[in-house]
Design brief:
Elements (H helix, E strand, L loop, with lengths): L2 H4 L3 E3 L5 E3 L45 E2 L5 E6 L5 H5 L4 H10 L2 E3 L9 E6 L2 H19 L6 E6 L3 H16 L17 E7 L4 H13 L11 E10 L9 E7 L1 H15 L6 H4 L7 E6 L18 H7 L3 E7 L1 E6 L12 E6 L1
Antiparallel strand pairs: 1-2, 3-4, 4-6, 5-6, 7-8, 7-13, 9-10, 9-12, 10-11, 13-14
Helix pairs in contact: 3-4
Keywords: RNA-binding
Pfam family, one: AKAP7_NLS
Organism: Drosophila navojoa
Length: 352
């Protein structure tokens, strides 16, 4: 009796599982393609690669895969340290799963290592590409859970708009409306439009964001700049004005809207967007006036972090902040207004 019947070959699959490889015999209609005279067997079942090349565009990092002198393939991949824990997983489970499924070895830098690059190695280039795609997908998933660090802003903290903002602020405070105090207002030196929100976790990602911002200049060619902006009318982010978190001024600027939407689409392709920008098709142009988050530090633990905007909307709903021109946008650090005397800490500027 054939040894292949008494001790059938097995195939190791994911999660440390072994499966028997079934043979196809000529007696049952199998062709010599599957069973030659020397009783060679088929390769057996293999799980399909859900991340195959046909399903994904080529990653630019694949160009950096190098072949070593021993014939193996290696890729040094930059991944911010903030993702290391998620890539390794509980007791290394996530890293082992990726290695098993892609038939690779992955080295994650330790704290004292001179290099911050992940190293992916395998005897097959396709395996390295498969591991790269799995890591990319995992990093994208982890980024969605992280708080934004930077935002793209069009400043409005000068001229007529700032003057009119201060007039509205004084009128609202003078009205002594219940639950409305100065802590709810954005500072007049920080008035802006938010055109994008991002998660930038290290110097490499911040530099990449600057490069991508400069690449957005291409869409200014067919647009008339500086952009004219008309700021008029007050609206709220939610449906219940009695329980409002954000009250903002409506902004009308067709040119800026087109530019902002193209920037949004471009940054969505970079993997740097915060989840709020990943899941939207268009930027909502608005200028924040009051935000419940600004006074969060002064609230007691059980206090509701919202305010009643009904009287504000009734009395000042049609308030006109005037017009302004936008001739530059800034990549800014979130929550950095306290660190500088004017506006926010700026990482980069794109001037029109």
């Amino acid at each position: 009796m054939s040894r292949n019947v008494l001790a059938p070959p097995t195939q190791r699959m994911s999660n440390n599982r072994n499966y028997r490889v079934n043979m196809v015999h000529d007696d049952f209609g199998g062709s010599s393609k599957w069973n030659a005279a020397n009783e060679k067997i088929s390769k057996g079942y293999e799980e399909p690669d859900l991340y195959a090349d046909d399903d994904y565009e080529e990653d630019i990092a694949e160009c950096n895969i190098e072949q070593l002198s021993n014939g193996n393939y290696k890729l040094a991949l930059h991944v911010p340290k903030s993702f290391y824990g998620g890539l390794i997983g509980f007791k290394g489970s996530t890293k082992r799963r990726i290695e098993t499924e892609s038939h690779t070895e992955i080295y994650v830098p330790r704290q004292n290592d001179s290099s911050n690059d992940l190293i992916i190695q395998s005897n097959d280039r396709k395996n390295v590409c498969a591991a790269l795609r799995k890591i990319r997908l995992l990093v994208d998933s982890l980024r969605k859970r992280m708080k934004p660090t930077h935002f793209l802003a069009a400043p409005l903290n000068t001229g007529e708009v700032q003057k009119r903002f201060n007039e509205l602020k004084k009128s609202i405070l003078d009205a002594q409306l219940p639950g409305i105090d100065e802590d709810l207002f954005i500072s007049e030196r920080c008035i802006h439009l938010t055109l994008g929100v991002y998660v930038l976790l290290d110097d490499a990602e911040r530099q990449k964001a600057i490069t991508e911002l400069n690449a957005c200049r291409q869409w200014l060619t067919d647009l008339r700049t500086p952009f004219e902006m008309k700021i008029k009318g007050l609206e709220i982010m939610n449906d219940d004005p009695s329980s409002t978190t954000v009250l903002y001024a409506h902004v009308e600027s067709p040119g800026l809207q087109e530019f902002a939407d193209k920037c949004l689409k471009h940054f969505q392709s970079t993997g740097l967007c915060a989840i709020d920008n990943i899941e939207r098709d268009s930027i909502k142009l608005h200028m924040t006036v009051l935000n419940a988050r600004y006074r969060k530090e002064k609230l007691n633990k059980n206090d509701r972090n919202c305010f009643d905007a009904r009287d504000i909307l009734k009395r000042f709903g049609d308030f006109d902040f005037g017009t302004a021109q936008c001739n530059e946008v800034h990549m800014c650090v979130l929550n950095s207004s306290r660190d500088v005397d004017d506006f926010y800490k700026i990482s980069s500027t794109l001037k029109f």
